[in-house]
Amino acid sequence: MDGDDHQHQHLNGSFTLRQTSSGIRFGSSRVWGNAGADAFSTSAREVYEDDDEEALKWAALEKLPTRVRATRGIYAAGGEGGDVREVEIRNLGIVERRKLVDRLVKNTGEEDNERFLFKFKDRLHR
C-alpha cells in the first residue's frame, strides 16, 4: 500500500478501527495496536466504499469538538450489514471492552509489529 491508498479495518463486525496518519484509532481516540501497512504514511481517513452509512457517521464524528470526539466510536452491533451506531467509549460494558481488546490483540500480526519496529528504528537513525 502506498501513502495514497486508503484502508479501513472492520473487526469482525463489532467495533470499527481505523488507521490515520497519526496511528491507529478507535473512533477518534488513540488506541495502541498494529502499525498497519505503512507506519509513517500520510494517508487520510479511510473508509469502505460500500459502507455509506458508516462513512457518514465517521464524518459526523470528525466534526465534533476534540474533547467530545475523543470519547466516541462507531459500534456495529450485528456484524456486516448490522445496526451501526455511535457510542461513548467510556460507557462500553466490560464484555464489550474485553471483546475490543481481544480483537486488537488477535489482529496484531507479528509481521506488522516487525515492520513497524524496523521503520521506527530507521527513522530514529536519520
TrEMBL record:
Q: Which domain of life is it from?
A: Eukaryota
PANTHER family found in the cross-reference section? PLEIOTROPIC DRUG RESISTANCE PROTEIN 1 (PTHR48040:SF20), PLEIOTROPIC DRUG RESISTANCE PROTEIN 1-LIKE ISOFORM X1 (PTHR48040)
Instruction: State the name under which the record lists this protein.
Output: Uncharacterized protein
In its UniProt entry, the species of origin is given as Genlisea aurea
